[in-house]
Amino acid sequence: MTIKQSIRIFFKSTFLALMIVGMSLVFIFIHDVLTQCDYFKAETITVEGGQRMTPDQILKTADIEEGVNLVSLNLKTVRKRLLAHPWIAEADIRRIFPGRVAIRIREQEPLAVLDFGKQFLINSDGVIFKEAQASEINGMPVMTGIEYSDWKTLETPGTLVFVSVLEILNIGRSSETILPNTLIKNINVDREIGLTLEMDGPVRMVKLGYGNYRKKYSRLEKIFHYIEQNENIEFIDKIDLRNPDHIVARPGNERLSEKDKKEV
User: How does residue 258 score in pLDDT terms, banded at 50, 70 and 90?
Assistant: First the structure.
């Protein structure tokens, strides 16, 4: 390689390095201008979707406030902060130029209380999303007799207990069901005999067992109508619906022995 070629390579390399440094400085300058320019400040932050959570609570969780720069705002980081809150199931955050940030969340919908010794809230998918506080469990069924191994996790498929309980709870969400979740006080699970419901209303306890719940609820609806039309029966203390074709019921206003149980 000649001296002339070496000089040429040196100047090319130096020029390329200077170009890279110069472009970097330009980008830094542009970034500083954009992140410090008043034009890109968020003058308004809108919050939608909160029912349990107030807009102020959502903003505090997101850790942003009016005046934040739209360019420097890290949307992924803000979304992670929101999703870390147990009551927030989904979160969407957007920049809207000029001068606005829009936050929309979907809160968890608690379906029931799962009692492992400590009480936890589950959502409509049966997922445990937080430990239950006393003020949060009013009006929801409490599930007892369930082991942690009975419940579905991200690593395990749904067990018979999980599938059965969730089916009952989802039936109870319907506005047309004879037995809405608001009437069910307790769902007790026995691995051998299945589910037993304790409730308010004309029937106080129902042994449902496992499976065929639609048919069993249809039978239960007929029993409810029978009680309404029969003034001599104030309520039914216990119904065994494990076999929907052979139902055993015990009226609550009579003291009956096992032999005197009435077949409906």
Answer: very low
Q: Which CATH superfamily is domain 112-263 in?
A: Cell division protein FtsQ/DivIB (3.40.50.11690)
- Residues 104-126 as b/e (b if ≥16 CB within 10 A, e otherwise) read ebebbebbbbbbeeebbbbbeeb
d(CA 200, CA 185): 7
What is the value of pTM for the model shown?
0.76
Whole-number pLDDT of residue 2: 66
pLDDT digits (tens, 9 = 90+) for 22-73: 565 445 444 444 455 555 687 889 999 999 999 999 999 999 988 888 877 8
d(CA 254, CA 264): 15
Sheet holding 262-263, edge to edge: 128-131, 119-122, 112-115, 142-144, 184-190, 194-199, 205-209, 236-240, 248-251, 262-263
Domain with CATH 3.40.50.11690 in the chain: 112-263
Q: At residue 149, what are phi and psi to the nearest 5 degrees?
A: -70, -15
More confident residue, 43 or 105: 105
- Tell me the two tokens of residue 152: 């579905």
Q: Does residue 250 carry a pLDDT above 80?
A: yes
38-66 residues labelled b (16+ CB within 10 A) or e (exposed): eebebeebebebbeebeeeebbebbebee
Write down the pLDDT at residue 6. 61
CATH code linked to domain 38-107: 3.10.20.310
